[in-house]
Write a structure and sequence with these properties.
Keywords: Membrane, Transmembrane, Transmembrane helix. With about 325 residues, the chain is mainly α. The protein contains eleven helices and three strands.
Amino acid sequence: MSSLVNALERLEQVNTVTGLVLNLLLIYAIKRFSGANLGTYKYLLTCFTIADMFLVIMHVAMHPRAILVGCTHAVVTDTIVENRIVTALFVSFQSVPFILLGIHFLYRYWSVRRPHLIELFSRKSFVSFLVSLTVGSLISWYLMSYYGTTGQEDNVARRSVVDAYEKKYGKRIELAWIVLDHWRDDRFDAILFGTVVVTNVMMISSLFLATLLAALTFHYISKADKMSAQTNRLQRKLLIALCAQASVPSLFVYIPYLLTINIPFFRIPIYFFHDITIPLFTCFPVWDAAIMILLISDYRKGLMGLIRKNRVHEESSFRVTTTSTAENS
């Protein structure tokens, strides 16, 4: 393996450990330090954090990779079960943070513009609807990944990515491939083109919706005249934290995903993005948790207070031990 591949694998390992630790800390902080002013929002934060932890564990279990050979884009997972179903599941689960992000922005928008609707998040029927929406998105991504691509047949495209993967990573995987083989013999493939278009529409529309809700929320916060100064500051801080949180999937998931999907179709010979895309995905759970801990003051102050308390306890224990030793002498 090249030095770049080795460095990227080390990055994934560091992100795995750091992501699990930070998300466990965030779950603890949500449970222990959430103020009454956060209301049901803390449950959304908990769902997002659990989803991040699941993505970390799934990445370790599936060990996915993206690869580009000519105009052929491919994704593969390295598991005990060598099957395209596993790879399609990996792709589909990457959509979960996008849905949760949209729900987060909807909550913030309603809390400012339609506060009477916030109680819906406490109703089982509405929560069931949101869960159904998330599961529906996941299933849509799975079906598109499995049936809107190739890789199930032994053909030139699959053999080329299998050989390229073996050369780069030192292991031969035959059956777990999701392949988009564009412009084979200069022929246009309508099904693959449709898959690329649908992928672009789903991701860009998700990003557009989140951006629109954020802009509207900022607008109504600035225009609110019946909102107390304290509530105004709280809403602004939470929205800034959420916007910062939204930048994480944009940088580490949206942009790499869109580039790796579109570069092969437009015949752009840039292979670097395929090497770094999957490792960049692992940065998402790390920075997502870090931003929430740093920007939500309840959690930041609560965790810092625990650290200070432990230091004081250790110093007190050291002084007691030192004094006892001196007296015995």
